[in-house]
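**User:**
If convenient, please work through this fold.
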Amino acid sequence: MEKNEEEEDDDNYPGFPKYDGTTMGEENEEQEAKEEASHEPADDLGRAIANGKRKCESEREKLKFDRMLEDHKKGLYPNCKEGNTKLDATLEMLQWKAENGILDK
């Protein structure tokens, strides 16, 4: 640095995000909205489960919806054809059980 040059104030610290004028709450809400949109299921059943998860109040209910979404994405067995998911098979069995009047016993 030469005699006539002034040192520039550099408020940027390596590894820290730049301040964009938003508050932490707004930033977190925007981030959560982006994450939800990126993880939004493509079909109606997945969207219904995701909507139910957003509306639930307790953490326990949210975990149940998370498991349902996992089962909706997870294949019935390794290397199974696309579309045969664990949740779909469970729902088909419950529907068959209801149609035929099968008891829990």
In short: Residues 22-73 form one domain. The chain has two domains: 22-73, 75-105. The mean pLDDT is 76.
